[in-house]
Design goal:
about 450 residues, alpha/beta, Leucine-rich repeat, LRR (right-handed beta-alpha superhelix), 14-stranded parallel beta sheet
Length: about 450
């Protein structure tokens, strides 16, 4: 009776604790059925019953990760609550969780206003996933106001495909300047463009401690890269940058490389997959590899860098200052000609551990050249992907010989190549050879 009369969720939750201590679980059992069925948006619960739902979830062993989607109905009929309304009812649970997964839930500005309130409330929330919701610039402004609050301790924010433009980036930039806790930001597949990137770059240069920034397919060109390069020179916190699917081009890569060369830049991972890069931009990037000892992972997949670009990059790798450990050059129009320069880099660079050359016309001649590099005692390569590389039996013989003398290669992928049974047999036998460390072979 007290629970039914009490409109305050906080006091109701205290009364539920009392019921538990008295051994009365009747109401709790009924509520748990609603929770397990995921039909909260169509259950027509009273205020006290919603308090019971919150109590059940707050005392759940799975509280660390909250998924809104399992509590909302797929169809939103006349008798169903909207996702925003369900989110508002369950806000105390969001505040008590470390990770709130609200992706694909049709959250709008109304829900974002509630989330902003939760961010201000000194909550436990550290990760917020709003992937594929119709957030838009107005809602992002509301969220950004919550991020700026000194009580907000959010560390990761995912806004993948949320209808955000450059307009919304202005508010987010203000939050980046004032919030020292945000470490990871994903704005991929939003039309922020160069203007949005310029705004974000201004935020990065301030007191921002952001370490990982993902901007995949965001309509960014070389123009935006100038501002980003400036941020790299002044911000020593950014460690990972993903610009996949943007029209960076040679000019954009040259600008970014200038930023990479700066002593203040501590970037360790750079993804430039499908960024319209040619050999033209590789000269500047090679120079950055020589001067920046922090870059550990570089992804240039699906760019037309060709043999000329590979030669330039290989020269950069040979420098003792280069500490690159992972290099992805899949589908880059590389042939056997470029493998000669790469082989030279393998002989002089003991840091490279993983390399992906899949989708290039390496052929038997290219594999023979690479095998010479693998045999060198300075080469410490552990994983090599050569998927769909026009490799034949001829090249496999040289590779098998290299693996007998090189004790570092552990993973080898040769799928979708014209391999003969005998070649595969020789390579498979290496897993039992005491001089070889090969553990995994895909063919």
């Amino acid at each position: 009776m007290k629970i039914k009369k009490n409109p305050s969720p906080e006091k109701s939750i205290n009364l539920f604790h009392c019921l538990n201590e008295l051994g009365d679980h009747s109401l709790m059992n009924k509520i748990q059925q609603y929770v397990r069925s995921g039909g909260l948006s169509s259950a027509r619960l009273s205020a006290s019953q919603w308090s019971a739902v919150v109590f059940v979830l707050l005392t759940s062993e799975y509280l660390d990760k909250f998924k809104l989607k399992i509590y909302i109905s797929i169809s939103q009929g006349q008798n169903h609550m909207s996702p925003d309304e369900v989110l508002q009812k369950l806000l105390p649970v969001v505040e008590a969780s470390r990770l709130a997964q609200l992706s694909h839930c049709n959250i709008t500005a109304e829900g974002c206003a509630a989330l902003a309130s939760a961010l201000r409330s000194n909550s436990q929330l550290r990760v917020l996933d709003l992937t594929e919701n119709n957030i838009g610039d107005k809602s992002l402004t509301l969220l950004s106001d919550g991020l700026k609050d000194p009580h907000c301790k959010l560390e990761k924010l995912w806004l993948f495909d949320c209808y955000i433009t450059a307009e919304g980036c202005a508010a987010l930039t203000s939050a980046l300047r004032s919030n020292s806790h945000l470490r990871e930001l994903n704005l991929s597949e939003n039309e922020i463009g160069d203007k949005g990137l310029m705004l974000l770059s201004d935020g990065l240069k301030d007191h921002c401690k952001l370490e990982k920034l993902m901007l995949r397919y965001c309509d960014i060109t070389a123009e935006g890269c100038a501002a980003l390069a400036s941020a790299l020179r002044s911000n020593s916190h950014l460690r990972e940058l993903d610009l996949t699917g943007n029209k960076i081009g040679g000019q954009g890569l040259t600008l970014l490389s200038d930023g990479l060369e700066d002593s203040h830049c501590k970037l360790e991972k750079l993804w430039l997959y499908d960024c319209y890069i040619t050999a033209e931009g590789c000269a500047a990037l090679a120079s950055a590899l020589r001067s920046n000892s922090h870059l550990r992972e570089l992804n240039l997949s699906k760019n037309n860098i060709g043999d000329k670009g590979l030669k330039l990059l290989s020269d950069g790798q040979k420098d003792p200052q280069c500490k690159l450990e992972k290099l992805n050059l899949s589908y880059c129009n590389i042939t056997a000609e470029g493998c000669a320069a790469l082989t030279s880099a393998l002989r002089s660079n003991s840091h490279l551990r993983e390399m992906n050359l899949s989708g290039n016309k390496i052929g038997g001649a290219g594999l023979m050249l690479l095998s010479d590099g693998l045999k060198d005692p300075h080469c410490k390569l552990e994983k090599l992907w050569l998927f769909y590389c026009d490799i034949t039996a001829e090249g496999c013989a040289a590779l098998a010989s290299a693996l007998r003398s090189n004790s570092y290669l552990r993973v080898l992928v040769l799928s979708r190549n014209n391999l003969e049974h005998a070649s595969v047999k020789h390579l498979s036998a290496l897993k039992d050879n005491p001089h070889s460390k090969l553990e995994t072979l895909f063919y």
